[in-house]
């Protein structure tokens, strides 16, 4: 089994795609009529789908909200320099949560929230 993609349900696919391009440097693989976008992130893609899709499948759901607590999931990006990635993300509108810190096992980790309130980890490769 192999993880193919992760879909983040958002209220505005185009705005979220633009945010992820500016804050994290990700390019879109494709955008479908503003209802779905898939970003290039290596082997596993990160997708954004309009919240209306999940509502039609399961009814109500708890969306991420910038002013509420984040959902119980995070998006993690492995980067070479966490400090630079963290500063760039915050410069482009990510809400700072935890600045870079070196963990006892050697990994450097920082956290921000995206334009929708989702938790995003920026980290070096775990050794």
- Beta strand count: 8
The CATH H-level superfamily is 2,3-Dihydroxybiphenyl 1,2-Dioxygenase, domain 1
User: What is the average of the pLDDT values?
Assistant: 93
Kindly give the count of domains: 1
Characterize the structure shown.
The protein has 127 residues and is an alpha/beta fold. The chain has one domain: 2,3-Dihydroxybiphenyl 1,2-Dioxygenase, domain 1. The radius of gyration is 15 Å and the shape is globular. The two termini are 23 Å apart. The chain has helices spanning 13-24, 51-58, 82-91; strands at 5-10, 28-32, 36-39, 45-50, 74-78, 95-102, 108-113, 119-123. The chain has three helices and eight strands; from the N terminus they run βαβββαβαβββ. Strand 6 and strand 7 form a beta hairpin. Helix content is 24%, strand content 35%. Strands 1-4-3-2 form a four-stranded mixed sheet. The chain has a four-stranded mixed sheet with strand order 5-8-7-6, covered by helices on one side.
List keywords for this structure.
127 residues, four-stranded mixed beta sheet, alpha/beta, 2,3-Dihydroxybiphenyl 1,2-Dioxygenase, domain 1, globular
Describe the structure in brief.
This protein is of the alpha/beta class. The protein has three helices and eight strands.
